[in-house]
Amino acid sequence: MADLPYDLWIRVVHFLSREDVWTLRSVNQILFNIAMDDHYRFISINFDLWQNDGHYVAHFRHLA
Fold it and tell me: Are 13 and 21 in contact (CB under 8 A)?
């Protein structure tokens, strides 16, 4: 099953719900990668929770 090209797996996944893809993530490495890419597509960082000294913000900007 993992012998299928990545592009074909992407097409198959388009017919599935996000929940189904997440459930199938343990089937093979390709589905795992697709599920993780979808799951972590967006992140949110609330800078209000960080210290006001700017240390963490400066560190984050250095990483980006």
Answer: yes
